[in-house]
């Protein structure tokens, strides 16, 4: 129909790639798609995500400076997150209160202190060059693949940014069984991240470990310790088991 009207439908070079009946991880699907695109920027959206009409117009400029030149050091930009079912029941209200604080306030603090977005999830937009530089997504990550990628790109010299003027809506688990399943996956993922990245955070050099976060300039070693504790804390029960 659109072609009959003279519209060139493939001008945006958009296509859908289906992997069939695959039981592999989300990270494996992301890597499958990344390896098959020539795009400079890659957006990650979950199936339940709702974005604003001007989402791309607002978030893409974070990859450019005031002169319109590309900021090659920026690996990821994460928008603010809200939850469309936050008032569904007590469980979703509890999650929304905690996760909005973590995703919005916490993420901004991590970015300003370490240049690293610790919780880039649905709605995050990534630099394809940064993803290639660290070897792409780790297909073995069962969850928190965005956190793993953010830390890997940070250690490679890239940084993350928070887009406070961009909002994405997503959903929370609304039943206790779904919530418990999600939390267990996340705890195992945090334990894996701690095992994988803790030594690098504490001992390897990477730029920008000190930064003004509104209360003064953090000492480099204090910043590293805070960063390390941030990684370990969500998985503490598994690590102590």
From TrEMBL:
It is a multi-pass membrane protein. The keyword rRNA-binding does not apply. InterPro entries: Glyco_trans_2-like, Glycosyltr_2/OpgH_subfam, Nucleotide-diphossugar_trans. One of its GO terms (cellular component) is membrane. Pfam families: Glyco_trans_2_3 (PF13632). One of its GO terms (molecular function) is glycosyltransferase activity. It is found in: Membrane. This is Glycosyltransferase 2-like domain-containing protein.
